[in-house]
Specification:
four-stranded parallel β-sheet, Rossmann fold, Asp/Orn_carbamoyltranf_P-bd, 2 domains, five-stranded parallel β-sheet, amino acid binding, alpha/beta, Asp/Orn_carbamoylTrfase_sf
């Protein structure tokens, strides 16, 4: 993988950070780089770092194969605020819809563009979305940023990490974060929990993943996190009881994801069976710490992943979390493109 060099603003004369060309997987980055991107996000949001010309005269495509609100709009706005140009490219409008080979599409787009933000995944073919991103990267030969695939959503989690630091300060890693599966009618990618699992284990966070039996996360990510958490000084646990997991929580983060190890028909039966126990409600916050925050990466259907009462509670920060997508993604772009 090609690498470039970035210099933290507060360590310009001391240290250089090697970074991968793309932004596809949290695990491609170091502990120091994640902290650096969080620091960049804070500087950008506060207006302490001028990024208005970093992408001057650079052209980006947003290659999306599924619906998007926050990811699409935040990237379009962010790129323009950094001096670049952003064009939404729906796969339905491209020759991909007529079965053009992804290699040919990628090779041509790479001749036109300076970068691609890509959202591609198929809930029935776990892992194919990631393979497609790798193919695009190989043949386009320009930086590729994941806007969610079937394995990771690194941009969302970088915004989440910054949001936690923004709310709790430097002690955010010690706060108990409960990241829980929550009911949703439609299948959703496990990208966010996988990226959070990787980041939390690398940064030494205190996190509990809760999910019903049958909705286990990818073993590859779990084993990676278990290998990392000891050295980072964090705490990682798993629970099949949301009430138990919620005890003394400082944050409850609700997110649905598909089951990866059981058939689709069986999953839907199980999903509906466990719904009463896996919709986040006020009863979960009654056993959490006072002032515990509620997070969700949106979109959320009220009454599914969480009740309206929880979504609208004073300590719900899902809109702050959504806003921070803009700032975090500008930090990622700065990290990848600032020379």
């Amino acid at each position: 993988m090609d690498t470039a060099t970035a210099i933290p603003a507060n360590q310009a004369s001391e240290k250089k950070i090697d970074k991968p060309r793309n932004f596809l997987d949290i695990r491609d980055f170091s502990h120091e780089e994640l902290l650096y991107i969080i620091e960049l996000t804070e500087k950008i949001k506060k207006g302490e770092l001028d990024v208005t010309k970093v992408l001057s005269n650079k052209h980006f495509g947003l290659l999306f194969g599924s619906a998007s609100t926050r990811t699409r709009v935040s990237f379009q706005v962010g790129i323009r605020q950094m001096g670049g140009f952003a064009e939404h490219l729906s796969t339905a409008d491209l020759q991909l819809s007529n079965h053009e080979n992804i290699k040919d599409t990628s090779a041509v787009l790479g001749r036109f563009l300076d970068g691609l933000i890509v959202r591609l995944y198929d809930m029935d073919q776990y892992g194919q979305g990631r393979e497609n991103l790798k193919l695009i990267s190989r043949y386009a030969n320009i930086p590729i940023i994941s806007a969610l695939d079937d394995k990771d959503h690194p941009c969302q989690v970088m915004a989440d990490l910054f949001t936690l630091k923004e709310k709790f300060g430097p002690e955010y890693k010690k706060k108990k974060l409960v990241f829980t599966w929550a009911y949703a009618e439609r299948q959703k990618s496990p990208g966010v929990p996988h990226s959070m699992l990787s980041a939390a284990s690398m940064l030494g966070m205190n996190v509990t993943f809760a999910h019903p039996k049958g909705f286990d996360l990818d073993k590859e990510y779990v084993e990676y996190a278990q290998a990392k958490i000891g050295a980072s000084g964090g705490h990682l646990s798993f629970s099949n009881d949301l009430m138990e997991a919620s005890e003394n929580a400082d944050v409850i983060y609700a997110k649905s994801w598909k089951a990866m190890y059981i058939p689709k028909e069986e999953e839907y039966k199980l999903r509906n069976k466990v719904r009463p126990y896996w919709t986040v409600s006020e009863r979960h916050f009654k056993v959490a710490n006072k002032g515990a925050l509620f997070m969700n990466c949106l979109p959320i259907i009220r009454g599914e992943q969480a009740t309206t009462e929880v979504i609208d509670r004073p300590d719900s920060i899902l809109y702050d979390e959504a806003e921070n997508r803009l700032h975090a993604q500008k930090a990622i772009l700065y990290h990848l493109y600032k020379q």
